[in-house]
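User: Let's play a game. I give you a shape written as tokens, and you guess the letters that built it. Ready? Here's round one.
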């Protein structure tokens, strides 16, 4: 009985190792000074082949869309909305709607107006969901801290 219990525990631990969620998206960040009081921040998703992430406007009230939240600061204000390139659009019969997404890589951009002389970074969080033709990973939230160049 003791050996059987040990075998069950070992098999459970081994199976748990194989059930880990894949991480097919890597995020990187940068900024560029536009003029004396404006900068552009860039949030880049590098996406493994066969995977995709959803657009900021994925489709109606879709829970799949990528979202950025910039934390409030007295050092800067957002100028307009976060912009993205043109996504791939495809009708999803299961959801019965058009869905917009990105493959391989995408760079999102947010213009900011600097309201203080000592702005060092822009902080916030992003949320996204990565899917392939067979499955979707749970949505993921990542905090970011983007240095602002002088």
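Assistant: Ready! My guess for every position:
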């Amino acid at each position: 009985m003791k050996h059987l219990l040990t075998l069950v525990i070992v098999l459970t631990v081994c199976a748990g190792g194989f059930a880990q969620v894949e991480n097919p998206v890597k995020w990187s960040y940068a900024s560029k000074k536009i003029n004396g009081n404006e900068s552009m921040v860039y949030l880049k998703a590098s996406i493994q082949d066969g995977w995709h992430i959803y657009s900021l406007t994925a489709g109606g009230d879709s829970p799949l869309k990528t979202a950025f939240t910039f934390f409030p600061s007295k050092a800067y204000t957002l100028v307009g909305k976060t912009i993205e390139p043109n996504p791939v659009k495809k009708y999803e019969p299961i959801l019965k709607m058009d869905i917009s997404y990105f493959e391989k890589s995408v760079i999102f951009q947010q213009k900011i107006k600097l309201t203080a002389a000592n702005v060092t970074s822009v902080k916030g969080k992003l949320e996204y969901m990565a899917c392939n033709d067979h499955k979707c990973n749970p949505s993921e939230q990542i905090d970011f801290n983007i240095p602002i160049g002088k």
